[in-house]
Amino acid sequence: MSNNMNKVIMQGNLVKDPECSDIGETRLCKLVLASNRSYKEKDDTCFVGCQCWGGINKVVEAYLVKGSAVLIEGRLKLESWESKDGESRHRHIVVVESLVMLPKGENSKS
Q1: Interatomic CA distance for residues 41 and 22, integer angstroms
Q2: What's the CATH number for 8-101?
Q3: Is 39 exposed, middle or buried (0-12, 13-18, 19+ CB in 10 A)?
Q4: For the segment 18-46, what is each residue's pLDDT rounded down to a tens digit?
Q5: DSSP 8-state class, residue 59
Q6: Each residue of 65-80: pLDDT tens digit?
Q7: What is the pTM of this model?
Q8: Residues 99 and 56: beta-carbon distance below 8 Å
Q9: How far apart are CA 30 and CA 56, in angstroms?
Q10: Contact of 50 with 72, CB cutoff 8 Å
């Protein structure tokens, strides 16, 4: 048995409305979160792709829109594909295991 841990906890705002589609008999919703941080009087924004499967999608589709503030918990997954140019591409995404909707403005500085 492995002692490795793959856990992500992230707070951010949706960059755009969720994109939901049926994959076989399962529903998939894709999100892009922007998470901001400030350091040494500079701002840094991290954009992270997320996938929601199963029951979480009911909340995502019913309530979340561009700008919604959320706290997610999940695991990192490496996606790999080949570009149209034949180049190998990779990116990490978060597979969301739990999601909490936050009050509007929770992530804003004001």
Answers
A1: 44
A2: 2.40.50.140
A3: exposed
A4: 999 998 888 999 999 999 988 888 889 99
A5: H
A6: 999 999 999 999 999 9
A7: 0.82
A8: yes
A9: 11
A10: yes
